[in-house]
Write a structure and sequence with these properties.
7 helices, three-stranded antiparallel beta sheet, Arc Repressor Mutant, subunit A, mainly alpha
């Protein structure tokens, strides 16, 4: 990509590596993160977890999902998607049923209540993104998006190329 050193221990990059690492930590765990989660997803009995919202996001994309396809789309283990769907079912936001094409296959669908919940969160997300966008110049946003996407791909690539049990 360039002739700039890429080892974050290099003196020219160390300070940047620290800043990026701290920003990443704050995005994941910062004090405002819990407040943001509560604002986006609720904080009472009616609240859902971020992972459950990820599942609702996928369910809203099409009429029905095979559980295995849903797990693949979410990039999580099938047992994890099963637990997420069970919690959504208890809240009345999703339902499972045998496939019409193959009764041995279980499909999951978003319910009307799930669609309503998804729409409410989508509106709050839109408000959040409007606020974030206001912090940047219009010409900066495509660069910001590209860099975030590359960041995610770099993390994915790192994980894919490492021994999971060092």
């Amino acid at each position: 990509m360039s002739d700039v050193p890429t080892d974050p221990r290099h003196r020219e990059l160390y300070e940047l590596a620290v800043r990026i690492g701290l920003a990443w930590r704050e995005i994941r765990r910062g004090a405002s993160a819990s407040g943001l989660r509560e604002w986006l997803y609720g904080d009472g009995e009616e609240s859902i977890e971020q992972g459950q919202m990820d599942t609702l996001d996928q369910l809203a994309l099409r009429p029905a999902w095979r559980m295995s396809e849903l797990a693949e789309a979410l990039r999580i283990d099938p047992s994890t998607v099963t637990r997420a769907v069970q919690r959504l079912e208890k809240l009345g936001l999703a339902e499972r049923s045998p496939s019409k094409e193959d009764g041995r296959v279980v499909e999951v669908r978003i319910t009307d209540a799930g669609r309503a919940q998804h729409q409410e969160v989508a509106e709050r997300r839109s408000e959040l993104m409007t606020h974030i966008f206001r912090q940047y110049r219009t010409r900066e946003l495509p660069v910001f998006a590209d860099m975030l996407e590359r960041f995610v791909l770099a993390v994915d690539d790192f994980v894919a190329t490492r021994d999971p049990h060092p």
